Amino acid sequence: MSDGPPTARMPATLSPGLTEREAARRIALRGEVESRATSRSTRSIIRANVLTPFNLILVVFGALTLGTGDWRDALFLIILIGNSGLGILQELRAKRALDRLAALVTPHANVIRDGNTHQVRVEDVFVGDLIALGPGDQITADGDVVRSQGLAIDESVLTGESLAVPRGVGEEIRAGSFVSEGSGTFVATAIGDDSYAQKIAGEAREFRHERSPLEKAIDRLLLITVAAMIPLGIAFGVALTRQNISFGEAVSEATAGVVTLVPEGLILLTSLTYAVAALRMTRRGALAQQLSAIEALSGSDVVCLDKTGTLTEDTLRLVELVPAVGLDEGAIAEAASLYAASSAEADPLLSAVLVEHPATAGVVGDVVPFSSRRRWSGQVIGGRSLVLGSPDLILAPDDELAERARVEGASGRRVVALAESPRGLVTPGPDDPPPAGLIAIGLIVLAEQLRPSTVETVRFLREEGVRLVVISGDAPATVAAIAADAGIAIGGPPVDGRHLPDDPTELREAVLAAGVCGRVSPDGKRRIVQCLTDAGLGVTMVGDGVNDVPALKAARVALVPGSAADMARSIADIVLVKGGFEAIPPMIAEGRKLLRNLQRVAKLFVTKAVIAAFLILTVGLSPTSYPFLPRHLTLVSTLCIGIPAFVLALAPSSGEWRTQGFLRDVARFSVPAGVASGLGVVAAFLIGLNVIGMPLEEARTVAVTALTIIGLYLVLVLEASNRKRARLVAIMCGVLLLGYGAILGTSGMRDFFDLTTLGVDGILAALIGAGLTVSGLWITDERFAVPWNFALRWRP
Predict the structure, then answer these.
(1) 301 has catalytic annotation
(2) Least confident stretch, 10-19, 95-104, 535-544, 579-588
(3) Catalytic residue (choose from 142, 144, 194, 306)
(4) How far does CA 465 lie from the centroid of its chain?
(5) What average pLDDT does the chain have?
(6) How far apart are CA 32 and CA 124, in angstroms?
(7) Secondary structure class of 134 (helix, strand, coil)
(8) How big is the CA angle at 110 (ends 105 and 116), to the nearest 5 degrees?
(9) Three-class secondary structure assignment of 295-325
(10) What pLDDT is attached to residue 230?
(11) I need a labelling partner for 514 at 20 to 30 A (CA). Which of 152, 406, 422, 776 fits?
(12) What's the per-residue H, E or C state across 227-257?
């Protein structure tokens, strides 16, 4: 026995396995095994959410304000705390879920040492160990079978094949597969990183987080903001040093100008929207392990599906019973159901027959069990010798049923022939053919059972413009038949995964044209998904097995059912704890609703930044006092951006949705709106300060009032997409305007925000400034014109 590392591979022998003494020696030699990291550390999550450029900027100005100015001007720090805290909580939640699901194999194995069976950790299984298997057990190492008593292995998570495969003495079995039926023992020949499953998985357990398209767009937006903030901040600071004002006042005005350039609320709203989406998905039975997973799923252009376990269940369904010439369907139904009811084997084929044609078991005599080498089985039931097997073995080549079997097989159906032997049954050898002189009874035509709601789900995705591609390890014709049953568009002959084009462009065109790929290896699945992703398509991969892991990692969104292999769940973005493929439509609908709203309200945050830049370039660089204090902008941002954004981001919505061109679309609204708003605010402030001759505090109140009116108008412009929505938004804006009036009318609140009451002249100045902005926008661009018939016409 080798004394090498525990992961070394060695030839299997028929030895009784390791002794307790040898196992203990190896454990001592190896030492304690450290658990693999399945996700980012808590420290890494906290660092990523706290140590950001914008947080640093806000902290610096917050510290300066608290140290030299009025603490009320540092209210913006609440946004910082909320943004970081929410991000940390959500990622910690995802981390806990990921750690809970990211297990490669079952946590224990039954090893036989010194003739006794012991349950040990998977980490304590060594090459050369003798491992016992029973029904339902997961195989924890690669190995060779030593004893087999009807041992059948479900390898669908490794190969994509949906039917269990019998394994006899000396045959190889692999880690990650499951015992479907029977029992046996095997000697471990490869464990840990050397096992087949682990080689497929590669880096499956590492933390997986790619920025979504919207996150990338927001990142670019923030980068642009920083690039504008640095020169504007420097210029504003230089201008303030040349004014005859106190240091505390200079800090206050600098904070008001620079901090407003930071769209910190947009970051918070994005995190909050993702959090709400994740919560709603959890209630639907879907666990979003990445904050942006719902958004990425909603933006999918292509959904790649694994057939087995995704479109289909583990059961078969009876499509048709085809009687032989001279017989009717009743004859074959009677014989097939009798054979199925009398069989001691739990076979999906026979179960499908009994579902449609229930029967009572007969008296069974001689039995020939099914063998993958013989490809037939037989039973003597009440004196009748029935034989079931492959049509090319049971039927004569010139039989009419043989041609029908070839046609059905070419279309992807599973076909077996049933016949009667007038000579009875004898015990055959491993490769013996069926008895001679068989009399055909008919064909049993089956197909895999589609999961509930599969057809409706496919129809929804097609109507939403999402392309579907089925990738499976099964035969291409079989995959094409299931895809056709599900309603997936098939554009030509299915792609054979054994002959994939080497050129990524040719591969992509072939896959998208056909829509179906069969006999695809795990690496072939990865290549298909990768070529689609490299072309700029948003790809969601739906799979459930170890063989799907490479493709899941290559996709933008990895989505797996709750019954998936542990390895697949550990790297998934979304785990469907309840339900399967049919759970995708409500997630896409929910995500697109939230993102439509988020993209609209994002324009408000960018408009605020444009207003801040305009004010710095005009009033900020002049000897005139700045029109706002930080607390003023906190108030306006809350009333005109924070509250509306929070409400509208979660409200029902409809209309166009896209991630492409996000920044361009935001800029087309925010730049003219911000410049026009800045002009109106400056006009109102200067009218109050210089024309009417108001004191600075009152003139600033005029500016705050004008900006509040303008901000609520922009909210109405953005959200008046239909009559009902326009009415509700108009009511909300009216309530918020009344709330602002209540603040002006309450001495405590008025003093807290350093505002004053306004007389008729102050109100008139604010209305003039707001009117200049609204009329200017309305005249120059029809997008800024509110459809008043929506908002004010109350009868349907």
Answers:
(1) no
(2) 95-104
(3) 306
(4) 18
(5) 79
(6) 10
(7) coil
(8) 165
(9) HHHHCCCEEEEECECCCEEEEEEEEEEEECC
(10) 77
(11) 406
(12) HHHHHHHHHHHHHHHCCCCCHHHHHHHHHHH
